[in-house]
Amino acid sequence: MIRAGIVGGTGYTGVELLRILALHSEVAVTTVTSRADAGQRVDKLYPSLRGLCDAVFSLPEIDNLAACDVVFFATPNGTAMQMAADLLARGVKVIDLSADFRIKDVAEWEKWYGMQHASPELIVEAVYGLPEVNREAIKQARLIACPGCYPTAVQLGFLPLLENSVVDAQYLIADVKSGVSGAGRKAEISSLMSEAGESFKAYAVAGHRHLPEIRQGLQLATSETVGLTFVPHLTPMIRGIHATLYARLKQDVDLQALFEQRYQNESFADVLPVGSHADTRNVRGSNRCQIAVHQPQGSDTVVVLSVIDNLVKGASGQAVQNMNLLFGLPEQQGLETVALYP
Ligand SMILES: NC(=O)C1=CN([C@@H]2O[C@H](COP(=O)(O)OP(=O)(O)OC[C@H]3O[C@@H](n4cnc5c(N)ncnc54)[C@H](OP(=O)(O)O)[C@@H]3O)[C@@H](O)[C@H]2O)C=CC1
Ligand SMILES: CC(=O)N[C@@H](CCC(=O)OP(=O)(O)O)C(=O)O
């Protein structure tokens, strides 16, 4: 059995990890941390886990985690970078759901995240955990940087176009909507029901911290310089990300065949039939990214619709997909759920 620890077990991605790992036959969750709830039984805070998890929250200290084979960080940005080096030195693999190790350019990371990086030497080694791109490197890694939720939906939607050089890479537009759980469980006025409910708004139009991450991933897929406009929006739903992506085609191409071919061997990237409209409720609770590709009225604009559950393929499901690869397990293990509908 793989002994897994979760730092930040009370947050949304932490409890989603607990939900997925509770039914994973090769994993025992041995340590779950919370500073606020240390000493409490996990299933007291989350009764959905009764009979499935007998852990008690402990403090996020290295000694409490050192006996694990793998530790997931489901913590705010700036936490994993303080603890990862000590865990790696003790032979523990680290899967970070935060942004601490995603961006290779340290100065760029520090600019967008507004803090000094505590372990820049580990950034070089960290593998960006998007299995549809980095599968082989993930298998050999000690430290995995799981992609952000927006970056997962946007990259999976744009990659087939850029890898095949069929669009002008300089003019990419990502118009993306997220459910409120994307902001985490912490108390925030903007996440209150009376603020986020019955309302719909764009935010961070001037620049969102996922922009450099998405740009970095897309740039690796093309020799052209990538130009990207990314506008996130908050929608009054709990889970889900819907990315509407626009690009200018450079040539005639069978877009449907291009996408189907790119993802034909992928369990978690599902290209929908011609004319489909991707819908977040068809991926709610599942690790799938569903993608639909359109060329409205035969114009030279390609429109890609890409949907994920931000807490599953956008975070904890993808983290478990990475863990499976890291430990030589079937990639789908523990992730073969069907979306909740409606
Ligand atoms: N929500 C989403 O859809 C996605 C989130 N992410 C990223 O995953 C990470 C977790 O997000 P989310 O679950 O939403 O966050 P939450 O705010 O819901 O939870 C954060 C968790 O971290 C713990 N924590 C906070 N500060 C520290 C600290 N300094 N040291 C140790 N533990 C700490 C908290 O517990 P306590 O304070 O009791 O210790 C809590 O359990 C973030 O980096 C987020 O950006 C990535 C993709 C999608
Ligand atoms: C709706 C909402 O507020 N979303 C969050 C995205 C959170 C997230 O996933 O952040 P990281 O991927 O960087 O860890 C935001 O825009 O800040």
TrEMBL record:
EC number(s): the record gives 1.2.1.38
Choose one Gene Ontology CC annotation of this protein and give it.
cytoplasm
| SUPFAM superfamilies, per database record | Glyceraldehyde-3-phosphate dehydrogenase-like, C-terminal domain, NAD(P)-binding Rossmann-fold domains
- Similarity section: Belongs to the NAGSA dehydrogenase family. Type 1 subfamily.
Arranged from A to Z, the UniProt key words for this protein are: Amino-acid biosynthesis, Arginine biosynthesis, Cytoplasm, NADP, Oxidoreductase
**Chain coiled-coil ranges:** none
Pathway-wise, it operates in: Amino-acid biosynthesis; L-arginine biosynthesis; N(2)-acetyl-L-ornithine from L-glutamate: step 3/4
Domain Semialdehyde dehydrogenase NAD-binding residue range list? 3-141
Question: GO biological process: what's one of them?
Answer: L-arginine biosynthetic process
**A Gene Ontology molecular function term of the record:** NAD binding
Please report the organism this UniProt entry assigns to the protein.
Answer: Methylomonas methanica (strain DSM 25384 / MC09)
Major place of localization?
cytoplasm
Q: What is this protein called?
A: N-acetyl-gamma-glutamyl-phosphate reductase
